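Tokenised fold entry reproduced for absentees:

. . .
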Amino acid sequence: MPLIIKLGKKVKAAARKLLPAPEPRLSWSRRISQIKTKSRICAMTFDDGPMDLPAVPDRFHGRAVTDLILDVLAEYDAKGTFDVIGDTSENYPDKRGRLGTTNWGGVAYDHYPDFGRDEHGGALHCERIIRRMIDEGHQITNHSYRHLIYGRENIIYRKRRSLDSFDAAVADLTRLDSLLRDRDGYQMTMTRPPHYVNRVEKGLTAYDVCDAMGYQYLAASFDGAGWMSDRNPDPEAALEAEIRAMVEPVRKALEKDPDCFCGQIIFQKDGGNMQKRTPVVYGLRGQLELLRSYGYRVVTVAELMEESPFADLGREDPLFDKLNALQRDRTIVYSDNHLRLDRPMTLGELALLLCPREEAVRRRLAIIRRSGPAAPAAGALDWCAEQGLLPGETDPKAPVTALPEGLFGPTTDFTRRGVYAAYRSPSAE
């Protein structure tokens, strides 16, 4: 792993220890990295494609990298989740970056699949490959049109140009969303922000961008390592090391705990690593062979979330079916995808339960545009006040001590579990 990435990871880890982590907030959009299940199913995501250039080194007679990934997935009856970009050909003027560093593809911008070869990558230029993904039952998610980070990132990507506003981030995602919907008849439902940079502007984050798009935030829980590069000057030895770096961690994890991948999302790269080699087309088969030998099915993230959309609640819980129905139209889950059912219910959380998602999101964004940063429940509280659903208390952090008549059954349990259990929602029955 390049020194700059190691250093960046250490700095971020130290910062997390010294500074309190942001408190997860109740949010329509949640960071989906792993779900709770006892079934041996998991998902694989492939970032930054598609690309129609051959593998490096090419041992497949010029066949495109994304086609090779799709071939291997088909061989193992596995379904992938492809987190695609639109097109990076507008990301100029720029300079070539140095191989083996995070700016290998460009200093000010990312260029996929390579600097000066943008027309060989992205959904705009690879319509045939996008159609193949759809026809073969894979999931496609939105990795942004131009792969620009939403806001400044001052550690690893400090030289990178970023989008300058919340509206610009929404417009960029909408551009790719519209391309696939209008051209391919495909509706995306998830996004992974470029380089996981969440900061936008004025207190807004990637979660607010997801809210505006109606998306969930696609993350991952296990690094498949196909993006990493080895520094051995012998390219063949380096490739073998990169393949081992993909396969051996999976082997060791399964040997330690055969159930360790239940509900996990594995991160992969659809394209070259920082040395412009493509170990993913060589190491993917080894990963899938190991997972199959332990009885795993590799499914799309959408299918994984059909098993359970939550990180801390599985199908065995008696409240699962009701909460699974509620989360489709109500904001009942925290931004880290946990329900935390043992916590006391707050007034803001009650408002988000009662308010339809569209109203909660629209009104909160309107408040932010008018007055600046707003509490997560601001829009929902505004709607509930208009409907006359809540008492005079307006502090969103105040504990709930009584419930609106007619919408709830009798209860003395004002934890989140107790309130959700008492809620009489026609859509959740």
